[in-house]
Amino acid sequence: MASISPLSFVSLFHCTLSLLNPEDGVGILVQADDDVSMAQSNRDSRKRCDISVGKWVYDDSYPLYDSSCPYLSSAVTCQRNGRPDSDYEKWKWKPSGCTIPRFDALRFLGRMRRKRIMLVGDSIMRNQWESLVCLVQGVIPTGRKRVTYNGPGMAFHAMDFETSI
């Protein structure tokens, strides 16, 4: 798994949550009244929850993606660089007083259908890009995803969703 500071992870997660804002109404597919209720509940809990206050907890269901993800750069792939253990990948951030929903790649891609997600910055943002791409790429069939390069920039394309990151 990519080495990422707790603050960077919380920032990425907060940015991801802001992309899923149920109030914007653009590109969101509402499938049932239950989804609307859940979105309302999530929005209300975000208002009451300070996700920067909490602790790291061990969770056997982690990591959310395999460390062999082909989009991880060699500098951040601990196991490919000889680290023998993997328990460090099983930690997640748990805010005090609320719950962060587990990332659902298909739901995320559905909400981002026909959108372009841009992550602009330095090597830390590159790690964020790699992490997000590794989170979503596992639910896309091999022939339906690709990466394009334009100088130092790159884009991951989920063709069935017409989404690029």
UniProtKB/TrEMBL annotation:
> Where located?
Membrane
Q: What is this protein called?
A: Uncharacterized protein
Question: Which InterPro entries does the entry link to?
Answer: TBL (IPR029962), TBL_C (IPR026057), TBL_N (IPR025846)
What is the protein's species of origin? Glycine max (Soybean)
**Keyword field:** Membrane, Signal, Signal-anchor, Transmembrane, Transmembrane helix
* Annotated Trichome birefringence-like N-terminal domain residues: 47-98
Q: Record's GO cellular component, any one?
A: membrane
Protein family: Belongs to the PC-esterase family. TBL subfamily.
Broad class of where this protein is predominantly found: membrane
Kindly indicate where the leader peptide sits in this chain.
Answer: 1-18
**How would you describe this protein's topology in the membrane?**
Single-pass membrane protein
Specify the domain of life of the species encoding this protein: Eukaryota
- A Pfam family that this protein carries is PC-Esterase
- Give residue ranges for domain Trichome birefringence-like C-terminal: 100-164
What one GO molecular function would you report for this record?
A: O-acetyltransferase activity
